[in-house]
Write a structure and sequence with these properties.
Shape: rod-shaped
Strand content: 25-35%
Number of strands: 61
C-alpha cells in the first residue's frame, strides 16, 4: 500500500472515537451562523485534546489516555441511504487529486520512474538484469514516500459515514450537548424543552435513528453567549442558575463572537475550519453548489436533497433543530441490500466550483483568538468533567452487571457444559455454521453488555480490557451461532490485540480473515467486510506483510462496486512495489485493473493517472500490444477530461511505433486520433500548424531537383537525357561528370580552374556534396521529392499536399545585397504546386514530387510539407489499386475525418571526420540541399538528336543531326561539348563546316566527301595534305573539349539550329555509354552562376565488323635513284562479323595513309579485279609500298590507294576528324602506359641509345575504308566505315583495336636490395639490326661452262644503307661459314674471293656500293647471304657492336653449259 500521513495506530484511534450529539435551539444556531458555521462545525477543529487524560478502570487502576479525539455531530433522525453514501464517496475521491508537479514522490528504479515507498529495496529482480546495480544505488539513496490522499480521504469518509448498527456500539452516541443562547427569553425553559426532545428521540419508537449507547445518556447543558450583543450579567446569572440545577459538572457557559461583524477585516485570524469544511462541503451542497447531484442507480433514479441547516422541522410547536441526514434521499425507493452498488455518478455542478466558493466564504469572522481558546477550553472541560467520568461510571456499572449476571445465570451453565463436554468447546469452522446472521439479541442481553463494555473500553484506549471483553463475547456469539455479532467481535478483538501497548500477543490475522469471510459470504454485508479489509491491510502493511495485504485487498474486489474495487486494486499495486523484491510487473498489471475500474466508476482523472503510472513499466519493453492498449485508453481518458494535448500525444505513440495490431484496429486508432486532433485544432484555428506523425518521412532520402522536367522524344527527335529524378544516383558516373565539367572549365579559363568553382549539381540527394548552398535559377522550378512511408495496414490519403517554405528576397545583380526581409507566403514571390490527393497504400513507401516556382532572386529555405491527413472509405479494394490514381482529384471518398498539419524536413549532414577533435567527438556537417539560392536569369539550352543510331558496326561512320534550342529569354554563347570519347563524334573541321556533297555521295547518301577517280590512277596513290589544327587538335589543346560551330557563336532566345554530326562506331564490340557534356554561358556575366551544363548519355551497341592488322618492314630493294627509304606495308583484313546485323559482305574501297614522314606509294599485289570483297569469316592480305615524304613539315601527308571508282578524300571531314581523334586517343593511352611502366623516376636515355631506337621507329598510320552491304526489311543498305592502324615500330604488328593483355601468372614474391648503380640501358637486338640496311645485287641464275673453266666467278654488289641520322662504322666479314649440315646439303658451299673483311664509315642516310666476287666449283643453288655485318656508332668505342643478319636468303642458281 501507499504511505499514509498518519501512523496505523493514529488512523485506527481516529476511526473509532466517542460520538457526542448536539441539539441546538434556533437562537443558538443563529449565533453560530454569524460565522457561517453550525455549532458542530464550530467546535470540530478543537475536538482533539492536547493533553493526556486519566481515568480509572474497573479494578481502580489508573489508565492514561493520549491524543483523545471526540466527534460532535448534529442529531440526524434518518439513517443515510446507500445512494447518498455512494455519491459522497465518489465526490470525495473526485476532489482529491495528486498534486501537480510532485516529483519528490518519484523514484527511479532501473528504467522505471515509479512511486516506491520509503523502505529500502535490497534484492534484485530476476527478470531484469539492470535492477541489480540500480538497487545497490537505491540502497544508499534517500527515498520519498508516495502517498495516495484520495484513498485516505475515501477511507475517512467511508468510516465516518457508516450507519450505526445493532451488533456493535462504536457508532452510538455516548452523550448529548444541549445548546441554548443566553439571549433567549427563558433559557432554562428552553433547556428543558431540548432535554425532553432528546429523550423523545432516544426512547420513542418513532425514531429508529440515531443509536444511543446506553439509556441514561449524558446530557451536557451549554449556554452560548454572544459577547458582541452585551448582556453579560444576564448570561452569568442564567449560568449560576444552571449550575445550581445541573451541577458544575454538567453545564458550561461558552462565550463567542467577541468581534462584531461590522469590524474591519484588517486583523488576520487563522481559519482552522477550512480543512474540515472542504470535506463537509461535499455533503452540504445547498450552500455552495449551483445544482444538485444526480445519482443513477441500477434500479431507479434517486435525487439527493441538500442538507438544509435552516430547514427546521416543527414538532409540537417547538423549534427542533435535529435535521435530515445529509445523505438522506427524498424517497426510500432504493431497496437494494447492497451498500455500494455499481453506480455511475454524474455531477451536474463542478466540485472545483464548490471548492472555490466554499473557500471564498470566510469562517469564524466574528471570532477572535480568545474565542478559539474558549472553544478549546470548553471541549476540554466537557471531556474532563462530563464525558470521561460518565464513561468511567458506565464501564463500572457494566462490569458490575456482568459479574452479577454471570454469577446467577452463566456460571451454572458453563460448569455443566465443562463437566459433560470437557474443558474446551471446539470452535466450528465458518463453513459448518448455519446462516444465522438474522439472529438478534435483546438490548439487555448479557452478550451485548459485554460487547458494549468492550466498545467503551476501546473508545478510551483501554485495549487490554477491550480485547478480553471482545474475546469473551466472541465465544458466546459463536456458541449461539450469531455470526454477525461474532464477526464484529472477531474484528475488534484483532484490532485490540494489535493496539495493545508492548505487543503482548501477535496480531491475530486469522480473526480478521474469519470476520471478512463471515461478513461477505454469510452476512452479505460488504460495508463491514470492507471496513475489516481497510483495517487489516493497514496493520499488515505496518508489519511489512505486503504480500498478505495485497491478497487481502484483491480478495474484496467485486463487481458490485467499481470505486471500491479500483481503490483496493491500486493499494494492492502499491503493496507489490513496496515488497522486499519489488514486483514491478504486478504493480503495473494491477494499476491497469485499477484504472479500468476507476473508468467504470466515472473517476476519469484517477483512471488516467493509473494508466500513466502503469505505462512507465510497459514502455520500451517490446510489449507493443499492451502499450497500444494503454496509450489508447490514456488518449480516450485525456480527451474526456479535455486534456487534448495529452490525448494527441498518446494516440501519436500508437501510430508511430511499429504496430502489430490488425488492420481494423489500426483503422480505429487512426480515426480516434484524427477526431481528437480535429478538436485540438478547432480550439486554436489561427495557431501554428501542428506536427503530424503520419506518414513517416525518410528525411535523408529527400531529393531536390533544379530545372524543368526532361522533354520526351518526339518522333525521330531524341532529347538529351540530361538528369532527372527517375535516374538512380551513381557515384562513379557523378565523378565522371564532375571531371568533364572541370576539364571544360579549365579550357575556358586557360588551364586554371577558378577558386570559386562549384560543380553543377542538378539533383541533390544523400550521396551528393550538400555542404554548399545550391544554385537555382529564377523562373525555373525547384522540385523536392519527399519519401513517404505508411507504417500502418490501412491506407492514408493526403490532400492539398504542398511544400512549406521561407523566402528572403535579395538582389544579386547589385554590388551590395538588398535588405533581407522574411515573407511568410506570397505567390508573387514563390509559386507552389499543390497535389490535390495523394494515396499511400498500407505499408507502402511512395515518393511525392512537389514543385516551387521562384519568381524573384533571393534565398529560399524549404522547411517541410503541409497537408491534410485522412483516411478513405472502403479499404477492401485498396491493395490492388493503381498508385497513380491517388494523384487524380475526386477518386476517393472521404470518411469525413481529416486534419491539417505539417511535418518538418530536417536533414542531418554527414559526420565530420577530418580533424582530431571531430574524430574524438560526434559532429555533423551542414546539409544545405533544402536551402537553394535563387540566382538571376540564365540561358537554358535544350539539345535534340535527329537520326541518332542505337546500333553501329565497329568502325562504322554514320551521319546524324543535332538541334540546339535556346528556350530561355537570354542569349547563350561559348557552346562547347566535352566527352571522354572524342573519337566517337565530330562536328566537322574548322575549314569545312558543312561538307559539300558530290553527286555520287548524294546518290549513295555517303557520309564522306568523295570524287570520281580516273581509271589511270588506279594503281598509284592520290596525295593530299592537312593540318591537325584544322580539326581542333592544335598543340596544347584538349582533344576532349570540342567547340560547337554556332553561327556568330551566339544562340539567341527562342532560336534553334541544326548541325551535322558524324559518328564513328567504337572499335570494341558491346554496349558503350558515351557521356556528352554541353557547356554554355550567358552573354551577361553573373556573380553567382558563371555557366551552365547539359548532360547527355548516348548508349550505342556495336557489333563486330572487320579486324585489321598491319606490319611494316624495310624493303631490301634499294631503288629510286639510290634512295633507300622505302618500306613494305602488309595489311591483313579479316571479316569477323557473324551476320548478326544482316551484313552480307564487306568491300574494301580504299586504303589511305597519313603521316608526316611516310606515304603509301602503290599497292604491290594488286589483282585484276579492282574490288576487294570479304564475305563472312574471309580474310584478305594487302601489300603496299611506302616511301618517305619529300617535304616533312607539320602537315600530315594523306595518300589514298583507291580500290573502287571513287576516291574518299581522307584529308577532309569526317575521315580526317576521326583519324586525328583516334590518333590523339592512342597517343594519350600509350603515354599513360609508358608513364605507368617507367614509374616516378624516369631514366635518362643515352643519346646514342635514342639514335639507335629512332632507326626502328616509323610514324605511319593506315586507314582502311570499307562499305558493308546490309539487308534489312528486304532492303539493301550500304554502310560505311573506317578502321585505323597506327604503326610505330618496324617489324611489330599493330591492330585496329586494342588487344586485351593477359594477366601475368602468379609468381613467388622475391625480396632483394636494389643496387644504386643503374646499368645503362642497352637497345634491343631488333633496334640494332635496323641501323644498317643491306642488299645483295646479283643475277638470279648464272651459266658457266665448267668443262672449259673449273672455277666460276660471279660479280656480286653489296649495297649498304645507313638508316640512322648519325655516322656509323661498319665492318663486313666474309669469313662466315655455314656450319649446319642441312644448309650445306641444301645450298652447297662457295667462296668469296678477294678481301675477306672491310671497314667502312657511312655518313647519315648514305648508301654505299661494295663490289664482291663469289667463286663456285660446281653447279647448284647457293645462298649468298653468308656475310656478317657489324655496326656501331662512330663516336662509340665498342658499345653496341652486333651482327647485321639478312633475314631473307639470297639464292643464286649456277648452271653448266
Amino acid at each position: 500500500m501507499a504511505q499514509c500521513v498518519q501512523s496505523v495506530q493514529e488512523f485506527i484511534q481516529d476511526s473509532f472515537v466517542p460520538l457526542v450529539a448536539a441539539l441546538c435551539s434556533e437562537e443558538a444556531e443563529r449565533l453560530t451562523r454569524k460565522n457561517n458555521l453550525g455549532f458542530s462545525e464550530l467546535v470540530k477543529p478543537f475536538c482533539r485534546l492536547t493533553s493526556e487524560v486519566h481515568m480509572r478502570d474497573p479494578n481502580n487502576q489508573l489508565h492514561v489516555i493520549k491524543n483523545l479525539k471526540i466527534a460532535v455531530n448534529n442529531i440526524i433522525t434518518h439513517s443515510p441511504q446507500p445512494g447518498g453514501i455512494r455519491k459522497l464517496l465518489h465526490d470525495v475521491v473526485s476532489v482529491s487529486q495528486p498534486a501537480e508537479g510532485l516529483v519528490t514522490n518519484v523514484i527511479t528504479a532501473g528504467d522505471y520512474d515509479l512511486n516506491i515507498s520509503d523502505r529500502s529495496v535490497k534484492a534484485s529482480v530476476p527478470w531484469y538484469n539492470n535492477w541489480k546495480d540500480t538497487l545497490m544505488e537505491l540502497n544508499t539513496s534517500t527515498f520519498y514516500s508516495a502517498t495516495t490522499p484520495w484513498f485516505e480521504a475515501y477511507r475517512e469518509s467511508f468510516l465516518q459515514s457508516m450507519p450505526a448498527s445493532d451488533h456493535e456500539f462504536l457508532n452510538h452516541y455516548v452523550a448529548c450537548m444541549l445548546v441554548v443562547s443566553s439571549g433567549e427569553p427563558e433559557p432554562v425553559e428552553q433547556f428543558l424543552k431540548l432535554s425532553q426532545e432528546q429523550h423523545r428521540i432516544q426512547h420513542s419508537s418513532e425514531y429508529a435513528y440515531p443509536k444511543w449507547f446506553i439509556p441514561n445518556t449524558l446530557k451536557y447543558y451549554v449556554l452560548l453567549h454572544d459577547v458582541s450583543a452585551g448582556e453579560e450579567q444576564r448570561a452569568d446569572s442564567v449560568y449560576e442558575e444552571m449550575k445550581q440545577r445541573y451541577g458544575t459538572q454538567g453545564c458550561y457557559l461558552l462565550k463567542i463572537n467577541s468581534r462584531g461583524s461590522n469590524r474591519g477585516a484588517d486583523e488576520q485570524i487563522p481559519d482552522p475550519w477550512s480543512q474540515y469544511l472542504q470535506k463537509n462541503s461535499i455533503q452540504n451542497q445547498e450552500s455552495y453548489d449551483d445544482g444538485p447531484y444526480t445519482v443513477i442507480s441500477n434500479k431507479n433514479a434517486d435525487h439527493l436533497i441538500s442538507d438544509g441547516l435552516d430547514n427546521d422541522i416543527q414538532v409540537d410547536g417547538l423549534s427542533n433543530n435535529f435535521k435530515a441526514h445529509p445523505l438522506q434521499l427524498d424517497h426510500l425507493s432504493d431497496t437494494s441490500s447492497s451498500f455500494d452498488g455499481t453506480d455511475y455518478i454524474k455531477t451536474t455542478s463542478s466540485l472545483h466550483e464548490s471548492k472555490k466558493t466554499s473557500s471564498g466564504t470566510p469562517h469564524g469572522a466574528c471570532l477572535t483568538l480568545t474565542d478559539h481558546d474558549r472553544i478549546r477550553q470548553f471541549i476540554q472541560e466537557f471531556t474532563f468533567r462530563g464525558l470521561l467520568p460518565h464513561i468511567e461510571k458506565t464501564i463500572r456499572q457494566l462490569n458490575d452487571q456482568l459479574i452479577s449476571r454471570k454469577g446467577l445465570s452463566r456460571s451454572l451453565f458453563s460448569a455443566t457444559k465443562k463437566w459433560f463436554s470437557g474443558s474446551k468447546v471446539p470452535e466450528k469452522s465458518i463453513n459448518e455454521l448455519k446462516n444465522t446472521s438474522g439472529l438478534l439479541y435483546p438490548p439487555e442481553a448479557p452478550e451485548l453488555q459485554i460487547r458494549k463494555m468492550a466498545d467503551l473500553c476501546f473508545l478510551v484506549q483501554h485495549y487490554e480490557l477491550a480485547y478480553s471483553c471482545y474475546h469473551t463475547a466472541k465465544k458466546d456469539f459463536l456458541n449461539d451461532q450469531a455470526m454477525l455479532y461474532a464477526a464484529g467481535a472477531l474484528e475488534m478483538a484483532a484490532v485490540s490485540a494489535f493496539l495493545q501497548p508492548g505487543a503482548p500477543r501477535p496480531y491475530p490475522a486469522h480473526y480478521m480473515d474469519t470476520a471478512i469471510q463471515t461478513y461477505r459470504d454469510i452476512c452479505k454485508n460488504m460495508v463491514l467486510a470492507e471496513r475489516c479489509v481497510l483495517l487489516s491491510a493497514e496493520i499488515l502493511k505496518s508489519q511489512s506483510k505486503y504480500s498478505d495485504a495485497a491478497a487481502l485487498l484483491i480478495r474484496l474486489t467485486s463487481e458490485d462496486s467499481d470505486l471500491r474495487s479500483a481503490l483496493l486494486l491500486e493499494q494492492a499495486a502499491h503493496c507489490f512495489i513496496n515488497m522486499k523484491s519489488p514486483m514491478v510487473r504486478k504493480f503495473a498489471f494491477h494499476m491497469i485493473l485499477a484504472g479500468h475500474r476507476y473508468s467504470k466508476a466515472g473517476q476519469k482523472k484517477h483512471a488516467l493517472r493509473c494508466y500513466c503510472q502503469a505505462m512507465q513499466v510497459y514502455k520500451g519493453k517490446g510489449w507493443s500490444l499492451a502499450e497500444d492498449h494503454i496509450n489508447f485508453t490514456i488518449g480516450r481518458q485525456s480527451f474526456t477530461l479535455r486534456q487534448l494535448d495529452n490525448a494527441v500525444s498518446a494516440f501519436r505513440h500508437i501510430l508511430i511505433n511499429d504496430s502489430k495490431q490488425p488492420a481494423a484496429q489500426q483503422g480505429t486508432f487512426l480515426r480516434e486520433y484524427l477526431y481528437v486532433y480535429k478538436n485540438v485544432t478547432q480550439l486554436s484555428p489561427d495557431g501554428p500548424l501542428p506536427q503530424l506523425p503520419l506518414p513517416y518521412i525518410n528525411n535523408s532520402a529527400t531529393r531536390v531537383f533544379f530545372g524543368h522536367d526532361r522533354r520526351p522524344a518526339e518522333g525521330e527527335k531524341q532529347a538529351a537525357t540530361h538528369i532527372s529524378l527517375d535516374q538512380e544516383y551513381d557515384c562513379e558516373s557523378s565523378h565522371q561528370w564532375k571531371e568533364l565539367e572541370e576539364q571544360v572549365v579549365a579550357v575556358v579559363n586557360k588551364g586554371i580552374i577558378p577558386a570559386n568553382f562549384q560543380p553543377t549539381q542538378y539533383c541533390l540527394n544523400s550521396f551528393s556534396d550538400n555542404s554548399k548552398f545550391p544554385l537555382a535559377v529564377v523562373e525555373e522550378p525547384v522540385t523536392v521529392e519527399v519519401a513517404f512511408r505508411n507504417p500502418l495496414k490501412v491506407p492514408l490519403l493526403l490532400t492539398d499536399l504542398s511544400l512549406l517554405w521561407k523566402f528572403q528576397p535579395k538582389d544579386f545583380s547589385a554590388k551590395h545585397n538588398g535588405a533581407t526581409k522574411e515573407l511568410a507566403c506570397g505567390n508573387d514571390m514563390i509559386g507552389a504546386e499543390v497535389i490535390a490527393e495523394f494515396l499511400i497504400n498500407s505499408e507502402e513507401t511512395k515518393m511525392a514530387r512537389l514543385k516551387l516556382f521562384p519568381h524573384q532572386t533571393g534565398e529560399l529555405h524549404i522547411l517541410g510539407v503541409v497537408y491534410n491527413l485522412g483516411t478513405i472509405q472502403g479499404t477492401m479494394m485498396i491493395d490492388g489499386i493503381d498508385p497513380s490514381i491517388g494523384l487524380q482529384a475526386g477518386k476517393f471518398v472521404y470518411n469525413g475525418m481529416s486534419v491539417r498539419g505539417r511535418q518538418d524536413l530536417e536533414i542531418q549532414g554527414p559526420r565530420l571526420n577530418n580533424t582530431k577533435e571531430e574524430k574524438t567527438s560526434i559532429k555533423y556537417g551542414p546539409d544545405r540541399r533544402l536551402d537553394p539560392i535563387i540566382t538571376e536569369e540564365m540561358p537554358l539550352l535544350e539539345v535534340f538528336f535527329i537520326n541518332f543510331p542505337t546500333g553501329l558496326l565497329c568502325g562504322e561512320i554514320r551521319k546524324a543531326y543535332v538541334e540546339f534550342v535556346n528556350v530561355s529569354k537570354c542569349p547563350l554563347t561559348a557552346l562547347k561539348v566535352v566527352s571522354k570519347h572524342p573519337e566517337f563524334f565530330t562536328f566537322g573541321g574548322n575549314t569545312a563546316v558543312l561538307t559539300p556533297l558530290s553527286p555520287s555521295a548524294s546518290e549513295n547518301c555517303s557520309a564522306y566527301k568523295t570524287v570520281v577517280t580516273d581509271s589511270t590512277s588506279v594503281c598509284t596513290a592520290l596525295m593530299s595534305s592537312a593540318s591537325s589544327v584544322n580539326f581542333g587538335l592544335g598543340t596544347g589543346s584538349q582533344p576532349e573539349v570540342i567547340h560547337v560551330p554556332l553561327p556568330d557563336s551566339v544562340l539567341l532566345p527562342g532560336a534553334s539550329i541544326q548541325l551535322p554530326m558524324w559518328l564513328h562506331g567504337p572499335d570494341e564490340e558491346g554496349v558503350h555509354e558515351i557521356n556528352f557534356l554541353f557547356y554554355y554561358e550567358s552573354i551577361k556575366k553573373h556573380s553567382k552562376m558563371c555557366h551552365r551544363v547539359l548532360r547527355h548519355t548516348a548508349v550505342i551497341c556495336t557489333s563486330r565488323s572487320l579486324n585489321v592488322r598491319a606490319t611494316v618492314c624495310r624493303s631490301n630493294a634499294l631503288e629510286d635513284e639510290g634512295k633507300g627509304d622505302n618500306m613494305l606495308v602488309f595489311v591483313d583484313v579479316e571479316n569477323i562479323n557473324t551476320s548478326e546485323a544482316g551484313v552480307k559482305e564487306f568491300h574494301i574501297v580504299q586504303v589511305s595513309s597519313n603521316s608526316k614522314h611516310w606515304k603509301l606509294q602503290k599497292a604491290v599485289n594488286r589483282s585484276e579485279d579492282k574490288d576487294y570483297k570479304l564475305a563472312s569469316r574471309e580474310r584478305g592480305k594487302l601489300c603496299f609500298k611506302a616511301v618517305r615524304c619529300k617535304n616533312s613539315g607539320e602537315n600530315y601527308t594523306f595518300a589514298d590507294v583507291v580500290f573502287g571508282n571513287e576516291q574518299i578524300i581522307s584529308s577532309a571531314s569526317p575521315c580526317a576528324d576521326f583519324f586525328f581523334r583516334s590518333l590523339s586517343s592512342e597517343l594519350k593511352r600509350t603515354h599513360t602506359q609508358s608513364n605507368m611502366f617507367q614509374g616516378a623516376a624516369k631514366q635518362l636515355f643515352d643519346e646514342a641509345v635514342r639514335l639507335i631506337q629512332k632507326c626502328s621507329e616509323v610514324d605511319l598510320n593506315i586507314v582502311v575504308l570499307w562499305k558493308a552491304y546490309v539487308v534489312e526489311d528486304n532492303k539493301q543498305l550500304i554502310l560505311e566505315g573506317q578502321h585505323h592502324v597506327i604503326l610505330h615500330t618496324v617489324g611489330k604488328e599493330a591492330f585496329s583495336f586494342p588487344q586485351k593483355q593477359e594477366s601475368p601468372e602468379m609468381v613467388l614474391l622475391k625480396f632483394f636490395r636494389p643496387e644504386n648503380t643503374s646499368l645503362p640501358t642497352r637497345p634491343t637486338p631488333e633496334q640494332l639490326s635496323n641501323l644498317i640496311k643491306t642488299s645483295l645485287h646479283y643475277p638470279e641464275s648464272f651459266n658457266h661452262s665448267f668443262h672449259q673453266k673449273s672455277l666460276c666467278l660471279v660479280p656480286v654488289t653489296l649495297l649498304l644503307s645507313n638508316c640512322s641520322e648519325a655516322d656509323v662504322d661498319v665492318i663486313i666479314d666474309l669469313r662466315h661459314k655455314t656450319t649446319s649440315p642441312e644448309a650445306l646439303e641444301i645450298h652447297g658451299s662457295f667462296t668469296w674471293l678477294g678481301q675477306t673483311q672491310y671497314k667502312l664509315q657511312l655518313k647519315s642516310q648514305e648508301v654505299y656500293n661494295l663490289q664482291l666476287k663469289a667463286c663456285f666449283v660446281r653447279t647448284g643453288v647457293y645462298n649468298l647471304g653468308t656475310h656478317r655485318v657489324f655496326a656501331k656508332l662512330a663516336d662509340q668505342v665498342t658499345l653496341f657492336e652486333t651482327s647485321q643478319q639478312n633475314s631473307m636468303p639470297a639464292l643464286i642458281i649456277i648452271n653448266n653449259i
